Each structure stands twice: as structure tokens, then as C-alpha cells.
Amino acid sequence: MKKQRLERFFRIIASLNYTWGKENSAGMRYSLLHTLRNNMTLSMSSQVWKNEIFYDNWNSYGVNKDDYQPTHRLNAYYSGKVGQLSIDWDADYYAGQNKSRNNTHEDSQEEEDRDINSSNNIDNQLIATRIILSHPLGGGNMTLGGEYSYTHRRDDYLSANDFLPTSYSKIKEQNTAAFIEYNRSFSFGSFTLGMRYEHAGFDYYENELHIKDQSRNYDDFFPHMGYTRLVNT
């Protein structure tokens, strides 16, 4: 099998950070990646056997051309304090598309030669964020926070041949979490008590129909309690 790839791309990155006071800072970073050209040629020879009996010889010659849209990445954050309340927050965003076309000619020794023409369109998106709040309480420290992420992927395979079916698939996934925790230290050790809730939702679609057997939704609670003993040495 022989492959030859030609790829050209450029990247742009911009970032901004700002700090005020002794304990506050915020910033963001943006990245753009754009592939200008990504072509690959492929040649392959295959000898096929079925039940230990010779079946066929195949020689394939193909060209794959990718047409990328700009890929965007954005990150933002804040870390600081408002009075005695500590805040840590960050968020991420991603979006990218790829359209590829494949043209392959297949020579067969025993069967008819054939041309295989197809295209594949992929669209990806991601959003994620997290926040953690912490505040002194009753001689200890109370912490609460939450997390959220959303993923969307669409994959469309378009075939120009009857022996390869066209298919449209889509995935949506959401994950949510919330937690609360209290921690207090004493001269003999420290205690921790908390609770975490998680929700996970995964939905799969094929040809615009929701496929229940491949889709899942979960809701769980995770209580926890801990004790750390201090040992004097």
C-alpha cells in the first residue's frame, strides 16, 4: 500500500490576561486553525481468500480530498475573591467542520471493475464550563460548585453507489454535575462531608431517528465522608 499526502494550514492565536488587586485575575485565549489543503492519493493491492480458496485480486487507486472549515477554540477563566468568597471559573468552546471526498477505482481479476465515489461531512461542537465557590463557615470551609459539558457531532456519509448506502448519524451528549463539601480541621485531625450529583445524557440518531438502544441517561448521587488523623512526630 502506498500513500502520498499534501497538507497546508495556518494557525492564529490571540490571548488576553488581566490582573487586579492581589487575588483577582481573568483572561481568555482564542485559537483558529485552518487547513488550506489536505489531499491524499492511495494505491493498494489485495489478494482475497475465502475458506482457504482463492477469491480475487484487487488493485485500488484513489484520491481523498479534504475541505476543512476553520476550527475555533475559545477558553476563558476568572480566579479571585469577593470578600471572603473565593471563585474559580473557566469555560471552553470548540467548533470544527470537515468535508472530504473520496474517489477510488478498483480493478478486479475475477469480477467487474468498479468506481467508488463518496463524501463525508463531519460537524463537531463542544461547550464546557465549571465553577467552584468556597467560603469560611463555622470554623471550617464550605465548598460548592458545578460542571456542565455539551457535545454535538454530526456525521453524514453520502454515497454515489448502490452497494454502499448513504447514512446520516448524530450524537448529542450532556453531562452535568453539582457538588457540596464541608471541611473542618481540629487539633487531632480533620473531617470532610460532602455530596455529589451527576447527570449523563447520551442520545444517538441515525437517519434523523432517535435510536433508543444506543442512547443512555444516568442520574447518580455520591455521598462521601472522610477523616484524616494528625500524627505528631
Describe the overall structure.
With 233 residues, the chain is mostly beta strands. Helices cover 0% and strands 84% of the residues. Strands 1, 2, 3, 4, 5, 6, 7, 8, 9, 10 and 11 form an 11-stranded antiparallel sheet that branches. It starts with a strand and ends with a strand.
| Major sheet size, sense and barrel closure | 11 strands, antiparallel
Helical content (DSSP H or I, runs of 4+):
under 10%
- Give the number of DSSP strands: 11
Average pLDDT metric: 87
First CA to last CA: what distance?
67 Å
Strand content: over 45%
Helices, by number, come to: 0
* SSE succession: EEEEEEEEEEE
Low-confidence stretches: none
Q: Which structural class is indicated by helix and strand composition?
A: mainly beta
Q: What global shape is seen?
A: elongated
SSE layout:
Elements: E1 2-20, E2 24-50, E3 53-68, E4 71-82, E5 85-108, E6 114-137, E7 140-159, E8 167-186, E9 189-206, E10 209-210, E11 216-229
Antiparallel strand pairs: 1-2, 2-3, 2-4, 3-5, 4-5, 5-6, 6-7, 7-8, 8-9, 9-10, 9-11
Quick tags:
single chain, 233 residues, mainly beta
